[in-house]
Amino acid sequence: MLSFFLLESADDARPGRQAHPRTDDDGLDDPGYGQFLRQRPRRHHPEVPRQRRLRLRQPLFRHVRRHAVGRPGDVPAADPRRRAGDVPGVGELHRHQFDGDRHPRADGKHPAAHRAPCQQLLLHDGGGGREPQTDRGAAARAGDGRTAAALRAGRTAQAVAPRADRQESGAVSELSAHAVNLVNCGIIGVDSSEQIVLWNTWMVPRSGQSAARVRGQSLFDVFPELRGSRVETAVQAALKSGTAANIPQSQSSAPFPLREAGQFDGARIDQAVSVTPFNEGKERFCLIEIRDISGVFERERRLLDHAESLRARSYVDGLTGIANRRYFDVALDRELRRAQRLGGELSLLLMDIDTFKLYNDHFGHLKGDACLTAVAQALAAMLKRPADVAARYGGEEFAAILPDTSAEQARAHANLIREHVASLGLPQAPGAARAHVTLSIGLASFDKQRRNGAAALIDAADQALYAAKRAGRDQVMVAAD
Ligand SMILES: Nc1nc2c(ncn2[C@@H]2O[C@H](COP(=O)(O)OP(=O)(O)OP(=O)(O)O)[C@@H](O)[C@H]2O)c(=O)[nH]1
Question: Which PROSITE patterns match (predicted)?
Fold first, then answer.
């Protein structure tokens, strides 16, 4: 059952008050709507005692406009999170309805006797400024073959006749009108000449345009930027050949200049737009549905960011913060293929901290970890080219990939790295060959004939590293040809 609210604003109650345009709750100029509210109580309910009228202020106006459908005695039902007491005046509104139902009036008549003529459904007409259709025939008409005429007349608000008198088709039409204004998406109807005949309540605060302002105007005058767009093509195809279309997200995520309700200078909301033709009598119309999918986009973006950060983390060594073995493998493969393709040079360094077992045994594992991290950071700091890669190869072993670097250049750079690590002055354990932490480095370079794969290159660098160890540590050895 539909609900009927009897309303009067505090301003309206003042005698002799001059009617003047009022700004509606969306901050939009909507004189018709304000006037409708002001005039209604007196015109339609002269017999209701003044003291029983509600004195509504703006917050309640907003609430009622948003939650105008319910049953007598319901708490405002459109928003289940709200209860009657949440908005000042709403509880009163419902009490008022109860009172009207339960208690006899001063003149002894049961309120049911005066309720019928007072029945009004306050359904926002999108700022149309029209009187609601109070004649019972209007509801019925809107459901029959004259819907097209009703659309042209812009009847987005419809009257509710007493239920007993309602015709089935009229009731269906009323429900449709309510649904159009309650759905959580934008609905625009255009006729065969692309003029707007339907503009639901959702559109008003997001476009900054009331139904009264846009009704009868060309869609492309209201939104000039849509000219030449995929939306225009889709609307024309719908009107000319009856083809429905979804506007692909890839072409534009926000074709209509719509923003969060009430935010006229923020970013546009992301939109899913569909265009559907329909016929009414001999005339073809087109329905444009606009759904706000900003939330979906935002969630997608967050998921992508999360996936990206997981991927990045999966390539980082947890202890030292430089690339891990997994990344080293991927990078070496990529650089080798590049060198093979372009005939370029590529050198690989394998580095090992000398007598690190002694270090660990003397200072303990935690200090050992700190030493590994310091050496790793020193190594990374020495590799400045964007394509260079410093990685922890495993345990106390590190690797460096040096693209576009010959064996001779790599040897010089390896010595700089070794000296830099030595210069850190990290104290070694007693009994080590040096008083500070040092590196041994094995070097191998890409060779198209013999060392053209990752395994061969790593093996050659490894052998050079062990040669450096055998030769006394703290030195660079180049793999033999
Ligand atoms: N603290 C710490 N120690 C590690 C880690 N990974 C490997 N090590 C230690 O590194 C040491 C490597 O020792 P060895 O392989 O015998 O080689 P070394 O003592 O460095 O001697 P040379 O390589 O011949 O100079 C071992 O004691 C490992 O426990 C790590 O992540 N943290």
Answer: GGDEF
Cα-flanking dihedrals φ and ψ of residue 307, to 5°?
-60, -40
- DSSP letters, 397-416, are EEEEEEET--HHHHHHHHHH
Q: What pLDDT digit, counting tens, does each position of 301-348 carry?
A: 899 999 999 988 899 999 999 999 999 999 999 999 999 999 899 999
Q: What is the DSSP string of 129-176?
A: -PPP--SHHHHHHHHTTTHHHHHHTT--S-----GGG--HHHHHHHHH
Domains recognised in the chain with CATH numbers: 2-61 (no CATH), 184-296 (3.30.450.20), 315-478 (3.30.70.270)
Q: What is the pLDDT of residues 109-157, one digit of tens each?
A: 444 433 333 222 223 333 333 333 333 333 333 344 444 555 555 444 3
Copy the structure tokens of residue 24: 């509606």
Which ligand 1 atom is nearest residue 366's CA? 1
Give the rounded percent of residues in the chain with a pLDDT score beyond 70. 64
Q: Which atom of ligand 1 is nearest to the CA of 473?
A: 25
The residues lining ligand 1, judged by C-beta closer than 6 Å to any ligand atom, are 319, 352-358, 360, 365, 368-369, 372, 395-396, 469, 473
Tokens at residue 111, please? 């309120």
Can you tell me the distance from the alpha carbon of 342 to that of 351, in angstroms, rounded to the nearest whole number?
Answer: 27
pLDDT of 252: 73
| Consecutive H or E run containing 38 | helix 31-44
Q: What pLDDT score does 403 carry?
A: 97
Q: Is 266 exposed, middle or buried (0-12, 13-18, 19+ CB in 10 A)?
A: exposed
**Residue listed under structure tokens 């922890």:** 392
pLDDT for the residue 152: 53
Q: How many CB atoms lie within 10 A of CB 383?
A: 18
Confidence of residue 236 (pLDDT cuts 50, 70, 90): very high
- Residue 420's SS3 state is helix
Q: Return the residue whose CA atom lies nearest to atom 21 of ligand 1.
A: 355
- Neighbour-count burial of 451, counting CB atoms closer than 10 A to its CB (0-12 exposed, 13-18 middle, 19+ buried): buried
Q: Atom 3 (ligand 1): residue with closest C-alpha?
A: 368
